[in-house]
Design brief:
The chain is α/β, with parallel strands linked by helices and 201 residues long. It has a five-stranded parallel β-sheet, sandwiched between helices. The radius of gyration is 17 Å and the shape is globular.
């Protein structure tokens, strides 16, 4: 396999996507980028720290909505453009350095037109009850009260963020190379399948 490739991994909140991404990267011996690693990459590229603080999977508000709802709307609308460009610059730089896994941040859409890079887009989902259980087991909450609503809200935020530019639909199977339910198939098996596919490129 001589191609440069990126495994762009989208995921529902608390579905284990980050763990699967790390597992794939380790198995293939390639770089791994999640929020923290992309933060480091952005700093190397001179992206302003204040801009990076907004560099997250949150819905980018429209200019008109901002005017209606936020007294600092003009600054926020301008910053939205800065955030989108900072994200694009950081992700392209990561991809150009060689094969890697990038978690979230619309990496599949940002890289789809980048010459010389094969994008393998993977989406990880799971049943909501399984994700509630995972969240509780992580020690971040003592019971399931309000966790379901929080998980659903985080999913809505990720969907809104991903869908913002209208070039894809978050979580829709036809938008990805492959999709998995981590409550129905083990993380190890998902890793096996993705790695096997990448080795055919």
């Amino acid at each position: 396999m001589n191609k440069n490739y990126v495994i762009a991994l989208g995921r529902e909140f608390c579905s284990g996507g980050r763990e699967i991404g790390k597992m794939i990267a380790e198995r293939l011996g390639i770089n791994y980028y999640d929020k923290e690693e992309l933060r480091k990459k952005a700093k190397e590229l001179g992206v302003d720290e204040g801009v990076f603080e907004m560099f997250d999977e949150q819905p980018t508000r429209s200019f008109l909505f901002s005017i209606a709802m936020d007294p600092y709307s003009i600054d926020n609308a301008l910053n939205s453009g800065k955030v989108i460009e900072a994200q694009r610059k950081t992700i392209i730089s990561a991809a150009e350095q060689g094969p890697c896994v990038i978690v979230g941040r619309r990496a599949d859409k940002i890289l789809q037109e980048l010459e010389g890079v094969e994008v393998v887009s993977v989406f990880i989902g799971a049943d909501i009850d399984y994700r509630v259980k995972r969240f509780i087991e992580s020690g971040q909450a003592s019971d399931g009260k309000n966790i379901r609503r929080m998980i659903e809200r985080r999913d809505r935020e990720r969907a809104s963020y991903y869908n913002y530019l209208g070039d894809g639909q978050w979580g829709k199977a036809s938008n990805y190379t492959m999709c998995f339910s981590s409550d129905k198939i083990s993380k190890e098996k998902i890793c096996d399948i993705v790695c096997a596919y990448v080795n055919t490129l």
